Amino acid sequence: MAKKPFILGLGGTTNPESSTEQALAIALQSANEAGADTELFGSHRLMLLPHYRSDPAGLNDTGKDLVELVRRADGVLLSSPGYHGTVSGLVKNAIDYIEETSGDERVYLDGIPIGLIVTAHGWQAVGSTLAALRSIVHSLRGWPTPLGVGINALGGMFCDGVCSDDGVNEQLNLVAQQVMLRAETR
Fold first, then answer.
1. 158: in domain
2. What is the CB neighbour count within 10 angstroms for residue 107?
3. Is the pLDDT of residue 186 over 90?
4. Is residue 41 part of a domain?
């Protein structure tokens, strides 16, 4: 029996009901339904991360857990709100913890597929934040999927973990499928 790929869902805001975290959960569920083991590292745990500093002795248990999840991941779904045209500080802080893998056999996110999801209240912030995430993923040697999901969430399309926009649902499923395809062939 082949090993099931492990897909990490990383991102959100301080609100677990945010459009950012709900979109991530929908995509992660799609990966799970496609046969992956999945885990969401969202708002509750993001808020428990101290500001990153390059000192393993200074990592709290939540930081250590995040680093181990990254090391285990065959793929990542990464979701950020577009705050003032870029990645939120909360999500960027979590990404900074990936520095702890710089000495690993698989450095950073080398060779693994990363599906990107951005939500914002306006298209300008969606576009610039998606571009920033792609740049970050390239810097960490990851493979951004061809589709990056950009969602103008101004209309309030997420409620209780459900997205009322069929087109957005289709994109969230597709980005998860693209991560799964690459994760399964690694």
1. yes
2. 13
3. no
4. yes
> Could you give the C-alpha distances from 111 to 50, 125, 127, in angstroms and in order?
28, 28, 24
Q: What is the pLDDT of residues 55-112, one digit of tens each?
A: 767 789 999 999 999 999 999 999 999 999 999 999 999 999 999 999 999 999 999 9
List helix spans (H) across the chain: 19-33, 43-46, 61-72, 89-96, 123-139, 166-184
d(CA 18, CA 28): 15
Q: CATH number, domain at 176?
A: 3.40.50.360
Number of domains in the chain: 1
Separation between Cα atoms, residue 119 and residue 122, nearest integer Å: 9
What domain range is 153 assigned to?
6-184
